[in-house]
Amino acid sequence: MTTSLRRAGLLLAAAGAALSFSLGSCSAPADKPAERLSIYGIKHSEPTSPADTLPDPIPAFRLTDQDRQVITNQTFAGKIYVTDFFFATCPSICPKMQSELLRVYKAFEDNPKVLFLSHTIDPAHDSIPVLRDYAERLGIQNASRWHFATAGRDSIFALAKAYMTGAEADASVPGGYAHSGTFALIDSQRRVRGLYDGMVPEQVDQLIKDIPVLLKEEAETQPVAAK
Amino acid sequence: MRSRSLRLAGAGALLLTLAFSLESCFTERQNEGAQLYAAHCSSCHGDQGQGLERLIPPVAAADYIAQHRTELPCLVRKGMQGDIVVNGIHYNQVMPGHEDLTDSQITNLLNFLQTNWGNTNQSYTIRETSELLGRCNGSDGQ
Prior knowledge:
The complex is a heterodimer. By secondary structure, chain A is an alpha+beta fold. In chain A, 38% of the residues lie in helices and 19% in strands.
């Protein structure tokens, strides 16, 4: 009697466990947001300790935006930002890409902690007036939240590499520049925390989901320091 | 009663097979205009022809499409640049030309635009498109 009861109990427990297991696998992995976003990049510098495995941060930069303001890493201190590479006369992917970035911008329009930075990869054509005109036509009236920036070509291409978004001059493609349409999400420590194909709406949706995750982490790790 | 429902199901199945086999009678070019739009135009003009803010003009419900009907074949072939007014809004971007499309592909593409997304304008025959393309030496005769 007791053994059969115990056996029944065991069976029941096993069934329950199996059920909760299978239920768990139904809902858990797909849409549960990660607590922390990964850190992307390559470590070129010597580690300062055996535990130092973090990739190199985005290097120091100095750009000029559509309002003729100089912008540097300091412009983004205490903020997170999304960055991409484009050019105003790009006939292929840019309009689609910038319309997707506009969608991200609109989702966080009211959050001053989230900034946007679009680099031109055609600085010879995209003068500051051209960038300002482009931004205004896109509906961005000033550079306070979304900078359209230019610099020397070499520094732009070096930055594209640091942001892990491919961009290079290529006479064989329409418009003369090859670039990937990648959006990079950067934290306040100048680290790449996400890479998204700006041509794929599902990946841009993921970016819109990831930004609050990063904001939460930022709020937890630097409560006062970077304000 | 039961045999009737069986018969109905049989008729349904027959219709379904018929529809499938008929579908294979048509070539993929039936929707060529929409496919060409998706491949060559949607990245700039939007997947619903909506354009992009004040950067790229819409092709959906666009007065320009109706008013400049005879110029559109050459516009697609040769591209354009400079100021353009669509639905009262000024745009100024470079549109690349499409030497890679045949006259009949341009016809299908434009007929798709002229009869969709709020545009209810006259279609083109391939012959008419070729004639209009002749104005800019843009006809390939295909």
